[in-house]
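anyone seen this seq b4? input:
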Amino acid sequence: MIPAVRALARAAMAARPVPLADVQARAALPARFDRRYLVPVEVFAAVAAELTDHRRPGGPFAALCINGRRWFQHRSVHYDTPDLRSFHDHRQGLPVRYTIRERRYEDTGVRQLEIKLRGRRGETVKHRRPLLADAPALGAAPRGFLTAVLDRAYGLPAPTDLGGALETDYTRTTLVADGQRITCDAALRCRDLASGRTVRADGGLVLVETRTTGRPTEADRLLGGHGIPAAAFTRYCGGLSALRPDLAAEHWRRAVRTAFPAAA
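predicted toks r here
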């Protein structure tokens, strides 16, 4: 087993299981501030042990559990224009930017179209729409949803020439406490849908993302105490930069090299 996947499994099994309804009630966070970290497995194990310790003030973090499972396979297709408008908007740090993706939860077969926007305070705002099992992700109804979201949020028309740019898959476990959610990803694989090339993340790293409505969380403080800084990294921009080095922006080049050492 990949070391990072083993670390996820151990952390999830050490935590009290909670169903999806409880996660949504305690930390739905459709609008939140995200901080991402590339964490060596030894540090991840230490931080997860502190968060899930039953002696933690306020109670331990619990692990999302669905049908007896506490870690899950996710697959996403990120959509962009032929000139990669969404990618370059993120690369330039534009205040008005968005990400469009189809996410498939492999263990349950659930599919969703997700649109992630940047809010006025710099927060991430996510909109999602369920997709039928065999329906195209960008069919008439999903495109209508996309059009409505972008018009309401930014007054922008939806791109008409969207196509699949990058496919990602990974293993995830989710830890949750009141008002806080931490997603922990391992075994990230990215495939360039234009060329078919693939790249895999370092198997000794866990991609940790903390999500909250405001100030840094306990997990942020613990990771900082271990000398792990927040990383300028997303799966879409990081994966595409690793596969197409000419696209890499200087401010996230170090994080991409850390996550994908084989590509570097």
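The two ends are 24 Å apart (CA to CA). The chain has a mean pLDDT of 92. kinda curious what u guys think
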